[in-house]
Amino acid sequence: MSAPSRKTTAMDRRRFLKDSARGLAGCAVAGMGLAWLATGARALPAQALRPPGALDEGRFLSACLRCGLCVRDCPYDTLKLAELGADGPATGTPYFTAREIACEMCEDIPCVAACPSGALDKGLTDVNDARMGTAVLVDTENCLNALGLRCDVCYRVCPLIDEAITLELQHNARSGHHAIFLPTVHADACTGCGKCEKSCVLPEAAIKVLPARLARGKAAEHYRLGWEEKEKAGGPLVEGVIDLPDRMPEVVPGAGGAGVPPSAGIPDPSMEGGFTPTFKLPGAKP
Amino acid sequence: MTAARRLPAGREAARKFGWWRAHRFLILRRLSQLFFLSLFLLGPWFGIWWVKGNLSGSLTFGVLPLTDPFIAVQSLLAGHWPQTAALVGAVIVALVYALIGGRVYCSWVCPINPVTDAAHWLHRKAGMPKGWQPGPGTRWWVLVMVLAVSALTGTIAWEVVNPISMLHRGLIFGMGLAWTFVAAVFLFDFALARRGWCGHLCPVGRFYGLLGSKSVLRVSAPRRAACNDCMDCFAVCPEMHVITPALRGAAGDTPLILSRDCTNCGRCIDVCAMDVFTFTHRFDDTDAPARETRTRPQPASGASRAA
User: Fold this and answer.
1) How far off is chain B from A230, nearest CA to CA, in Å?
2) pLDDT band, very low/low/confident/very high, at A271 (cuts 50, 70, 90)
3) Choosing a second label site near A250 at 20 to 30 A (CA), which of A14, A286, B18, B245?
4) For chain B, which domains are there?
5) Model pTM?
C-alpha cells in the first residue's frame, strides 16, 4: 500500500469516528425526544375508552397500526380515531367516549374482526367478556336513586341488567321509612360499554365508566374470605374446633349492683316492646 | 448566458418535444398521488368503500390487506407479533416495492411529496439559500434511532410524529392539529433545508429505499453520450447524487441508476432535451457508450440551482 493511501485511510478513520459521534449524539437527542413523546402517549385519559378486546395500553401502542379499520366497521359510529391536539389518546388510535356514543356491544364484535394487527384481541369471542372499563357510581350525592328517588335508568339500559348493575335495597335514613334502590356495579360482569353513563339523566353523569386502574381496588394476594373458603371446602376449615356458645352477662333478678339500678338488665334481644335505657338520667321522668 | 441559466429546467425539452412529453411523468405522478388518496377518500366522502383504512393499514374490496411494512417492523421490534392479516399485508407491500423500487412510494404515493415539492418550488422561486444539508448517513441514523426507540419503549414510535400518516389519516379521518406537522415539514423544506425532509431525514423513505435496493424497475441513461451538460436533470432530481454515476460513467459503467435513493419519479426523463434517460429494468444491458468530450462547457439552465 502506498503512503498517500495510508494517509487517506487515517483521515477516513478520523472522519468516520467524527461522523459516528455526530450521528450518535444526534440520535440520542432526537431519540430522547421521540421516546418522551412515545411513552407520554401511553397516558390514556380516564374518559377515553378503548374498543372491546383492546390489549392493555402499553401493549396496545406496540400493536395498533392506527389504520382505523375498527372505526370503519363500527356500525354505531361509536369509535373514532384520536385527533392530534383535539383528543387525549395517542394520535390516530381508536377510542370512544361513553357519554357521547356508548358501545352497543354487537354480538359479532365487528371492530375486533376488522383489526388486522391484533391490537384488538381476536381471543375475545363473547362481547360480554369485554372489559373496556368499569362503571362506577361516582356521585352518590347527586344520583337520583341514591337520593331515594326511582330513576333506575342506568340499571334499565345495562345490557347485563341484574348482573353488571343491580339495585340494592337500602334503608332511607333521611325519611326514615323509605327505601333507597342504590345502583350497584358488579365489576366481574361489567364490560364498560358505557350505556349507563351515556343515559344517566343528570346533566353530568353520576355513573361513569373508568379504566379498571382507576375504578378498582385490589385485595392483597394472601387475603382469604373465611366464609367463601368455608363454602368452597364444604365445611369448617379446621376440624375439631368447638364453637362455644357466646356468653352474655348474667342478670340476677333483684340483685342490685353498684351503680346498676335493680331494674336494669340486658334489653330483650328481640327488641320487642321497644328499647329501655339501662341508665336513667337524674331528674328524668320515668 | 445569464438568460440561458434562468431558463426553467425542462423548457428546452418542452420546446423540442412538446409540453406533455416534457411533463408527462410529473403529471402522471400527481395523478397517481391523487388516485391513491382518492381511493381512500371514496369511502368517507362518497360512501364507496372499495378501500378502507389508510396508508398505515388498509383493506381493499374486503379481501386484500395492506400494511405499511415500516410500521410492521416497528411493531415487531416493540414486542408485538402482528396477526396474519397485518403480516400478509406488510409482505405484499414490501414485495411490490422491492420489485418496482422502494422509493416509488415516496414519489408516486406519499401524500407528503406534493407538500415538499411545493416547498421546494417556493424555495427556488424565493431564491432561498440551501440551508442545512445533513450528511448522506443521516437518514440511516434516523432510521436506526426510530427502530431503537420502538424497541426500547415498546411502541410504534415513528407513528407518534410521522407527518405522512398525520396528513393521510387527517384527510381521511379528521385532521385535528395534525396539519401543524405538515406545516412544519413545509417550512423546514422551504426555509431551513433544501429538500431537507424527504431527501435527508425521513426514515420512512430510508426504509422503503432499503426495500427497493434491488428493485427491477430502474431509470437508465442509455443515451448519455448525447448529454450536453445542460444540468436540467440535476436541477429537478430530488436525489441528484444518484444521477452522476450513471450519466457520467465511463464506457464500462452501467448507465442504470442503481442507487436505492432514486425515487423513480421520472422527472429527469421529462426534462432532458437530449432524451438521455428512460425507464427500464435492472437487467437491461443495452450498450451505452459514455460521453467522449463535453460538447459545450457549461451552458446550463439549471446548474446554479442544482448545486
Assistant:
1) 43
2) low
3) A286
4) 3-9+216-294 (3.30.70), 50-211 (no CATH)
5) 0.84
